[in-house]
Amino acid sequence: MASVRDGRALVALALTGATLATGCGSDAPPGDGAQPTATATATATAQRPRAEAGTTYRDGDYEAKGWYGGLPSNIDVALTLRDNRVTDVEVTANATNATSRDYQERFAEAVPDAVVGKRLDEVRVSRLAGSSGTPDGFNQAIERIKDQAAS
C-alpha cells in the first residue's frame, strides 16, 4: 500500500503532466482557447518560486495578463512599484463582448483608487465598479507581478 506521501507525489506528477499538456504557466490560454483549469493553474503556480508576504520587491514597471471567467476573459495589468508600493496601475480591457468590455472598462477606471499607494503584498480586490469577474483576473495578474518583482 502506498503512503500518503507517495500518493501526493503521484498526484503531483499527474498534475504536472496536465499542466504541460494544457500550456499553463504562460500568458496564453491553452491551444484550444479554453481557460486553464484551476488545478492545472495551481500546479503551474506551485512549480515556480512564490513571493511570500513581507517580500521585498524590486522597483520597476511590470506587466501581466490575468485570466478569469468562462469565455475565457482576460485583462492586461501594467503596474509601477516604488519602495514596495504601487505608484501607478493601468488595466487594459481585452473583451470583445460589449457587456464584458463595459465591466472591464469600469473596473479599469476604478482600480487605481483601490490600489495606488498600497504595499504590493496588500493588493487584492474583490467586486469593484459592479464587476465581479474582472477582479479574479486582476488578482491573478498581481500574483504574477509579485513573482516577477520578488527580490
Structure in words:
This protein is of the alpha+beta class and 151 residues long. Helices cover 41% and strands 19% of the residues. It has two domains: 4-46, no CATH class; 60-149, Sufe protein. Chain: A.
Which properties best describe this structure?
about 150 residues, alpha+beta, Sufe protein. Chain: A, 2 domains, three-stranded antiparallel beta sheet, 3 strands, about 40% helix, about 20% strand, disordered N terminus
CATH topology name of the largest domain: Sufe protein. Chain: A
Overall structural class, as computed from helix and strand content, comes to: alpha+beta
The helix content, as a percent range, equals: 40-55%
Unreliable sequence segments: 1-49
Tally of alpha and pi helices: 4
Mean pLDDT over all positions: 75
Strand order of the largest sheet: 1-2-3
Biased composition (Low complexity): 26-48
Protein name: FMN-binding protein
Organism: Solirubrobacter phytolaccae
Region (Disordered): 26-57
Layout of SSEs?
Layout (H helix, E strand, L loop, with lengths): L3 H19 L15 H9 L13 E9 L4 E10 L2 E9 L4 H18 L18 H16 L2
